[in-house]
Amino acid sequence: MPITVPYFYGHDWQRLVQVVIAVISLIAIIIQRKTSVEGAPQAFDSVSILFAVLLCLALSSCLLADQPYWAFCEVSLMIGCCTIAYCVAHSRLQVGRSIDNFLIAVVLISCCAKTLQFIVSVLAGYTSSAQTLDLDLLLEGFSNRRFYGQFQTLTLPLLAWPLILSDVKRPVIKWIFVLLVCWWVIAIVGGTRGTWLGMAVAAIFVGCLGKAGRRWALWQLGAMLSGLGLYYIVFVLMTDAAGISLVNTAGGRLTTSLSARDIIWHQAWEMIKARPLLGFGPMHFSNIPNPIAAHPHQIFLQWASEWGIPSTLLVGFLMLRGMRSVLWKIRADRASDDPLNLLRICLFASLVGSLTQGMVDGVIVMPYSQLWLAIVTGWLMGIHRISSDHRPSNGRLRQLGLAAAFLAVGFLGYVTVHDFPTLRLRNEQYAHDFGGNFQPRFWMQGVIASKPQ
After folding, report:
1. pTM score
2. Phi and psi, residue 150, nearest 5°
3. How far apart (Å, rounded) are the C-alpha atoms in residues 179 and 157?
């Protein structure tokens, strides 16, 4: 995975990888477009009209935006994420449980690789001659530790799937639990409050969904407590014994402060009041410079300020509709130990945790978080059974959806090819015009505003 290769640690390279995966997903969909599968993903079925309305609202907002180029880029990015999700869902329906094994293997390998990197970094810190250990340097793979936390919120629930299966051998369970504990240690070191909030809400929610949900929550609780104990041993007792002082500890981040979010939330609220119907345009929060961030770190405030209140209500309805459908299925099968139902619980927990974190963080902005959110959503769509009274999909709407995906992914490719070679000059121009730190959005330097007069 890209996060294990130093060359792809940066935000811009991860965005490039995301666009490439969107292109590959579109090609896969086109190749398989003539294949008919019973119970196809709902994205192009009963909710197609709602998606069409959402797209019309988005295009209207883009046309009225100050910078339509970037507005269309944001809409294309969201369609690209939907393309990835649909490709994963369609592949799951086509191939079956082999996709489950493949995707969980990707999760395990990625987490193992990052855990090994973390362990090597810790050992290097202890064996160096320096008397200080900067915990930020232990978290490789992302340009910001919060982005690492977003990835962990999506993957922590999935790591517990083998632990709640009934046919997994005990040695395998032990090693998976060790990995889960280490993953929690990294989450503790990162100190991302959104991860803690997301996992807490997911554990409470899933714990109320029957015996299997409670088993999942207990495994997570046990791993978290074990992780806290291991953190105390390695980063408190051992560092004290070795005379090493810690820098950038998690304790400095685990506070109740808003970390200046009140400033950007206020800006988003003022934008909503100014243009409630269609917003300022997708990505246009970053068109109004502020010293904090290029997005408001809150899903609904971001969507309402940029896309408008009607679009936000429609997106919220679609989210609730999908989550309710999955919730009903989990509750109906709560006594079942079928691996598919247990996987559904883990995927549901992953989405609940991530969406909860999105209330205080930029989950729908960062490329790797967007990518994995699309994968998890598509994965859940693929294993979710469609009710027997579900009406067949409309072929014309499918074609329109494919055309929209083709145009969107094509435009993303154009933006990437056009911008990527000159990103360094773009960053230098931003530093000259605005100064201060970069504020990630589409690119690492995400502010799209013109030079202040």
Report:
1. 0.91
2. -65, -40
3. 12
Residues counted in the chain: 453
Q: Where are the alpha helices (DSSP H) in 96-142?
A: 97-127
Residue 445 token pair: 């330097």
Measured over the CA atoms of residue 36, residue 41, residue 45 and residue 50, the dihedral's sign is: negative
346-401 residue pLDDT tens: 999 999 999 999 999 888 899 999 999 999 999 999 998 543 344 445 566 677 88
Nearest to 344 by CA among 25, 82, 1, 92: 92
139 three-state secondary structure: coil
Two tokens, residue 20: 């490439």
Residues 6+ apart with CB under 8 A from 337: 166, 212
Amino acid type, 325:
S
Structure tokens at 102: 């493949």
Helix axes 193-207, 170-190, angle to 10 degrees: 140
Beta bridge partners of 132: 245
Give buried/exposed letters for 373-399 (b at 16+ CB in 10 A, else e).
bbbbbbbbbbbbebeeeeeebeeeebe
For the record, the structure tokens of 163 come out as 């632990």
Phi-psi region of 243 (alpha: psi -120 to 50; beta: other; left: phi over 0): left
Q: How far apart are CA 370 and CA 378, in angstroms?
A: 12
pLDDT tens-digit readout, 189-206: 988 888 999 999 999 999
